[in-house]
Design goal:
Rossmann fold, phosphoprotein, Response regulator transcription factor, 6 strands, alpha/beta, rod-shaped, 13% strand, Arc Repressor Mutant, subunit A, 215 residues
Length: 215
Amino acid sequence: MEKHKILIADDHSMIRDGIKTLLKQNKSYEVAGEAVNGREAVEKYKALRPDLIIMDISMPELNGMEAAKEILTEDPTARIVMLSMYDDEDYISLCMEYGVKGYVVKNETGSELDYAVKTVLKGQNYFSNQVQQVIFKKYSNNVTRKKQKEPEVNLTTREVEILKLISEGLTSLQMADKLFISPRTVETHRANLMKKTGAKNSIELVKKAQATGLL
């Protein structure tokens, strides 16, 4: 049976020993090498070409994120699982941006790391429960901020009718004839639409209406 070669990068020997003990429970894994800093991790990846790297973030010379970025820039197919004491959203976001395939926090159970290794070796991404909560919280905060920046626009039934006709390219006179109202009334509704949406012209009005779901 061909074994999966795994490189362990962590500056603490006790952590490396714990990871090796966990990996030895699966006969399909082989610890191909160890690195005690980010620079060594990059060099050993190039020399060993392991199937997966388990990488700490906080390491001397070159931290885990910098090492991961360097490795993934040279080889975008590299499979890296970050094992870190940090569940900071900025760290997680950067790792995801660089192309890291997995992220587990050190205070989680060994089974989380084991499952992360299995999942990433299958070609899938794995972010532990604690990491997923951080990602979801960030997403929720972004949605909330977006809603605060883009207040809900409440339109009357007539304004919605006018908006749809504007999107169809009708003139004020054509809209007036179609709705059996005066052109002046159409212009009043058009002005109200501009004010409520903050649009400066009809084209911007239609674009904003489409972006916010008014159309």
